[in-house]
């Protein structure tokens, strides 16, 4: 039996071996169900079968063997498989091992079958060559996608760290200069020290997250640890930090209702910090920035308002996407990486919340974050 026909006729047996191997090698603590274990294996095998059943010229075979297969513009099954395995915590070594096991399973089962009787054997060598080429092509697509996503998310994480450390560093820089003047004037510093200590503590937490990221070698998302948090207290602390640094601006902080919930306190602080930083960067010079927290029965709403040039309606959704951010926007004296609003969206989504913006010349620009008081999934997740 030709190899591509054998694969089609024995699809379930091949998938069962794939499933068993994936279950055996899944990361510690993994509990993938049958659908997740098999993932895109059937789709990949169907693509391989179609490829092997299609006649190809010597020139086409050479082109494909060099990794220059035609691109369709859509993600392949192998690329989708890499995304899913990365999300499930599989290392690239485990991803490659799956393809190695698939190759061995198919060839072992097929060779066992053709050894049981008389079969047309003039195509066996060609079938094995075509099958190995197809497996290698799928493997190359998976590895390339896995590496691209890991690199992209690593860069985003490092950029986010740089972005978030900028504000507390400004507080420390200003505080140190102020303390020096107070010391020279023989005055006693009383208000800046607690704010500076708080900023240092937040920087330490961010660096701890970088260590966690590096050690775990995960390539997707951010670690979210739910626990008791008070958005009113957090936003008030941040407003005081920004007020101490940006004395040319006016800051207003309003609170209504109970603004406590079950969130990741550090991540909620990042959300608030990035929105205030965005208001400072894009709002009117010397203008007022209003930060408000409003608690209701099942949710808490954080709003950050600034006056200034309104955001065009056509851009109000795109500003949250990483692909539209400018790393070094012209006229940006702080050389921010342009990740602030993207980070806000990702962190709000991780809390099962929502974020949107309204902007007009008369009402100003208002970013609104809605956080469920008790997200449905309180477990630690990525």
Top keywords for this entry?
Globin-like; 2 domains; 382 residues; disordered C terminus; Heat Shock Protein 90; alpha+beta; 5-stranded mixed beta sheet; two-stranded antiparallel sheet
Describe the structure.
- This protein has 382 residues and is an alpha+beta fold.
- The protein has two domains: 3-154, Histidine kinase N-terminal domain (Globin-like), CATH 1.10.490; 222-382, Histidine kinase-like ATPase, C-terminal domain (Heat Shock Protein 90, 2-Layer Sandwich).
- Helices cover 55% and strands 12% of the residues.
- The protein is built from twelve helices and seven strands.
- It has helices at residues 3-9, 11-25, 34-38, 41-53, 58-65, 77-87, 92-114, 124-184, 192-216, 231-245, 265-282, 340-350, and strands at residues 227-230, 250-256, 260-263, 288-295, 299-306, 354-360, 364-372.
- The chain has a five-stranded mixed beta sheet. Strands 1-3 form a two-stranded antiparallel ribbon.
- The longest helix is centred in the middle third of the chain and has 61 residues, at 124-184.
- The protein is elongated.
- The relative contact order is 0.09.
- Mean pLDDT is 81; it is low at 215-220, 323-337 and 378-382.
Q: Return the average pLDDT rounded to an integer.
A: 81
Number of domain modules:
2
E-strand count: 7
- Figure out the total of helices: 12
What is the name of the CATH class of the largest domain?
A: Alpha Beta
As a percent range, the share of strand residues is 5-15%
- Within CATH, the superfamily of the largest domain carries the name Histidine kinase-like ATPase, C-terminal domain
* H and E order: HHHHHHHHHEHEEHEEHEE
Separation of termini?
A: 46 Å
Tell me, briefly, the overall form: elongated
Helix share bin: 55-70%
Q: Calculate Rg over CA atoms.
A: 28 Å
Structure class: alpha+beta
**Strand count, sense and closure of the main sheet?**
5 strands, mixed
Q: Taking strands numbered 1, 2, ... along the chain, how are they ordered across the largest sheet?
A: 2-4-5-7-6
CATH T-level topology of the largest domain: Heat Shock Protein 90
Under the CATH scheme, the architecture of the largest domain is: 2-Layer Sandwich
């Amino acid at each position: 039996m030709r190899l591509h026909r054998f694969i089609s006729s024995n699809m379930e047996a091949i998938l069962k071996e794939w499933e068993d191997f994936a279950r055996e090698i899944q990361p510690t603590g993994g509990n993938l169900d049958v659908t997740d274990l098999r993932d895109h294996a059937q789709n990949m095998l169907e693509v391989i079968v179609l490829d092997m059943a299609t006649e190809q010229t010597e020139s086409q075979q050479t082109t494909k063997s060099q990794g220059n297969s035609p691109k369709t513009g859509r993600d392949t099954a192998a690329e989708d498989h890499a995304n899913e395995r990365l999300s499930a915590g599989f290392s690239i070594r485990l991803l490659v091992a799956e393809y190695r096991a698939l190759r061995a399973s198919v060839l072992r089962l097929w060779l066992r079958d053709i050894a049981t009787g008389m079969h047309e054997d003039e195509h066996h060598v060609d079938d094995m060559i075509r099958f190995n080429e197809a497996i290698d092509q799928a493997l190359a697509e998976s590895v390339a996608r896995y590496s691209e996503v890991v690199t992209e998310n690593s860069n985003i994480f490092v950029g986010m760290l740089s972005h978030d450390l900028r504000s507390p560093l400004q507080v420390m820089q200003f505080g140190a200069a102020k303390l020096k003047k107070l010391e020279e004037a023989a005055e006693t510093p009383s208000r800046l020290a607690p704010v500076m200590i708080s900023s240092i503590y937040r920087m330490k937490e961010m660096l701890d997250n970088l260590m966690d990221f590096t050690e775990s070698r995960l390539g997707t998302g951010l670690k979210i640890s739910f626990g008791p948090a008070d958005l009113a207290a957090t936003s008030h602390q941040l407003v005081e930090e920004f007020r101490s640094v940006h004395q040319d601006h006016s800051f207003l902080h309003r609170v209504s209702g109970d603004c406590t919930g079950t969130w990741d306190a550090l991540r909620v602080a990042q959300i608030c910090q990035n929105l205030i930083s965005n208001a400072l960067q894009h709002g009117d010079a010397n203008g007022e920035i209003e930060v408000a927290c409003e608690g209701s029965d099942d949710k808490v709403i954080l709003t950050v308002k600034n006056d200034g040039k309104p955001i065009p309606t056509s851009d109000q959704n795109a500003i949250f996407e990483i692909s539209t951010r400018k790393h070094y926007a012209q006229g940006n004296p702080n050389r921010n990486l342009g990740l602030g609003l993207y980070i806000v969206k990702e962190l709000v989504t991780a809390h099962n919340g929502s974020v949107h913006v309204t902007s007009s010349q008369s009402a100003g620009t208002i970013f609104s974050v809605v956080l469920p008081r008790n997200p449905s999934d309180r477990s630690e997740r990525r």
